[in-house]
Amino acid sequence: MEKFDKIIKDKLQSYPTEEKPNDNAVSNMMDMLDQALPLDSKTRILNPLADNKKPIHIVYKIAASLTLIVISLYALIAFNEVTVEVGKMAFEKVELPDRSIVHMNADSRIAYNKFLWNFSRKVTFEGEGFFEIQKGEKFEIYSTLGTTQILGTSFNIYSRPGKYEVECLSGKVAVTSNATQKKVELLPGDGVVLNQSDLQSYSLSTPTSPTWLKGEFYFEEENVEDVISELERQFDLEISFPEELKNQKYTGYFDNKDLDKALKLVCEPLGLQYVRNGNSLEFTFTK
């Protein structure tokens, strides 16, 4: 109040008049002003507890609202998660929300979120699949060893333990190594394989749809271990084999129509014989 009185006094003293009011006149005027002003306009009684409760109450309300929003958003995302798993001896055709098609080979898995799809076309994929992607915003496929980005195209992805390979049949594909972040762009007829964290490009001899879509599997200087793994997937088998086979290569073919024929086509060139017990097979070298 003393500060307020000083401001009034200074203001009165500053008015341009022919005769300045004397100190007594100013003092009398201030007394009259004090009497005229209501008490609550001159003095404010603070209640610290009341003032503190209000903002804390508001903070609690805001926190509760934010928590509800986060929980609702999490539930919305969680309930829209879609996973498709294809077992052994099976093929599956999966249609994505934008009508893109994925043909999935045996023992493969794809996952995506229907809600988040409206903002970004992203899937996670392991196994082998032939993708036919609708044109639109960037499409991203995440696998353990690499990432593939496309706009609108058809291509094949092979993503198995220790091996990642992409072959482009139409459009344009960008493939990135997750380990080194090295990036390679593929045009129709181009392929790339991840070899010890390094992407190595190559040209396709016949840039057509992959033969596995017809149940046919061709190998050229392929690791025998990978060939055996394909046999296991296509015929739901568990195959044991000599350790020395891991260092050998196989060039040949089999299809998934006839197990006995497939085993003959794989075993004979490698000098192998096998003993079968249900779904379990043991490969040994021919004596």
Helix residue percentage: 25-40%
Poorly predicted runs of 5 or more residues: 14-19, 36-50
**Rg, please?**
39 Å
- Biggest sheet, open or closed, and with what strands and sense? 13 strands, mixed
Q: Residue-averaged pLDDT, rounded?
A: 83
Mind telling me which CATH architecture of the largest domain this is?
Sandwich
Keywords:
three-stranded mixed β-sheet; 18 strands; 287 residues; Phage tail protein beta-alpha-beta fold; 3 domains; elongated; alpha+beta; single chain; Jelly Rolls
What do you see in this structure?
The protein is an alpha+beta fold. The protein folds into three domains: 1-45, no CATH class; 81-203, Jelly Rolls (Sandwich); 215-285, 3-Layer(bab) Sandwich (Phage tail protein beta-alpha-beta fold). It is built from six helices and 18 strands. The strands form three sheets. Strands 1, 2, 3, 4, 5, 6, 7, 8, 9, 10, 11, 12 and 13 form a 13-stranded mixed sheet that branches. It has a three-stranded mixed sheet with strand order 15-18-17, with helices on one face. A two-stranded antiparallel sheet has the order 14-16. The longest helix is centred in the N-terminal third of the chain and has 32 residues, at 48-79. The chain is elongated. The model is unreliable at 14-19 and 36-50 (pLDDT under 50).
Q: How do the strands and helices of this protein lay out in sequence?
A:
Layout: H1 2-14, H2 23-36, H3 39-42, H4 48-79, E1 81-86, E2 92-95, E3 101-104, E4 108-113, E5 121-132, E6 139-142, E7 146-150, E8 154-160, E9 163-170, E10 173-177, E11 183-186, E12 190-195, E13 198-203, E14 216-223, H5 224-235, E15 238-240, E16 249-255, H6 259-270, E17 272-277, E18 280-285
